[in-house]
Amino acid sequence: MSKIKAYLPFAKGGFLTAIAYRTHILGFLVGELLFSFIMYYLWKTVFANTGGTFLGFTFADMVVFIFISNATRFLIHSEATYTVAEEIMEGSISMRLIKPVRLDLSLMFTDLGGTILTFLLIFVPMLIGVEIYKYFEFGVWMVSPIRILLFLFSAAFSFLVNFYFDLCFGFMAFFLKNLWGFSILKQSMVNFLSGSMIPLDFLPKIFADPIKLMPFASISYTPVMIYMGKYSSSAMLNAMLLQAFWVFVLFMASTLIFAIAKRFLSVQGG
Amino acid sequence: MIHVEHAVKEFKKIVKQPGLKGSINALFKPSVEIVTAVNDVSFDVNKGEIMGFIGPNGAGKSTMIKMLTGILYPTSGNITVAGYNPQKQRQQYVRHIGVVFGQRTQLWWDLPLSETFTVLKEIYQVETKRYQQRMGYLNEVLDIAPLMTSPVRTLSLGQRMRADLAAAMLHQPKVLFLDEPTIGLDVVVKDNIRKAIAQMNKNDETTIILTTHDLADIELLSHRIVMIDQGKRVYQGTLSDLKERFGKSKKIEFVISDMEQPIEQLLSQRFQQRGVQVYLENERGTLIVDRSIPSAIILKELLDLIAVKDISIKESDVESIIKEIYLTKASYE
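Predict the joint structure of the above. Result:
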């Protein structure tokens, strides 16, 4: 317990930083909402021409998908790649390495601090908004508290998968020194393959099935499908076990990469 | 306390040829050059000792400190500090050290200074009672209480350095590493910082390793010095030893007022058998005299011989000795 206590200041720091950049958050929020509404109108047109359902999704499903997958993206957002790359580039990683803390946990708690703020400020209002909209528009009230809990549980795994994936990627900065181009490539890959842009079920089965096994699906697709009630109990268990598997694999990978990468560190300047 | 054996650090550096063609070549076939920043350096430091690292820019001082603090991995060689391997046992090891990099800060930039200390209290898990005791002590030595409510970015460089030192000493480390702690500070602040460092060394028996360009830091603080140049150790020992061995002579400079006399002849005749070297350039003259000969005797003889307008005596100081060592690039061990 006292071990965890040593990391709380990092969470506090992440929280305070997120608050300090509240205009940044506001811009982000408005931008993302706008994006969600564009998606909404796009899919509305699609569904208007399909007669109600499309590949097993009703329009009500699609609305939930658009907003919940966007909200989930906020929730699991990690700054690890950016922070590690930045600190290596300007050499301030030294200041982190001289503290008696694990590199991964200190970064993770910084992310968590920001997550607390996005949870309260963005996720909860968005969730309530979607449920109210659904009730008035479609007359369905389908989400149960248990399903929300399961969703949050799965989203916690998503956070970890995304975090360790980001971290592995950030450690590349030890070799490459500048990650800007690669991090854009990474982000588009994650956005597409995690199924946060379009449900993976919309892809041809031959692509969708292998993608569902990749770590990206664990980042967004799994919790969103849980929220939407698309899983049977056993499928849900399998999906969560797969998430846990990827957390473990990526955690081990990040530990291994760091063990190798730290020998390559050359602090630039000073 | 600190044991360093044949430490070597090599960096790979990508060499780019100039121009567009060079850049394109480097993109596909980078040519890599190996730079040796630290080349076979060994030394030991005892508990409670202050050891100074000196050397010109790019000599490898900072790289050495970064290896000692566990940030960089030595390419080869052994480093042990306080019984730990700084690289392999980083997390346990850094509990016992404090680090101040003069050109960086570990203070929380946007928040009041007090926040930094509460954070450090949690990170190092300092008990509340112990924390208050330490803060009282650090305030006594470094006078940080008046700074506590100011955001760090509003502190002056001198105030920031005091705060950084206090932050590094909060958990009472066994070893304190200071990488250019007085860089950019004015004379009075420098002096205060030095006094504080000396006091903390005495009270806590903290072993201190310090790198600097300012020789006054070394003269006032360190018990021993290691001088490195181009990654190699060129001198190790005490400062008085250095002076003893390389500062054997003093310089007497004078300005002649009456050029009518046969000065050169007079001076050579008088001083040659004493082993004093005489140099003359127009009205300026210099005598190089062994330190064992009292200046008074030489001065009296000089004044009796010729008419002199002005006189100054210069002991060969550390600065000139070191300058000589840097320039000749020789090993003086």
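The two ends of chain A are 37 Å apart (CA to CA).
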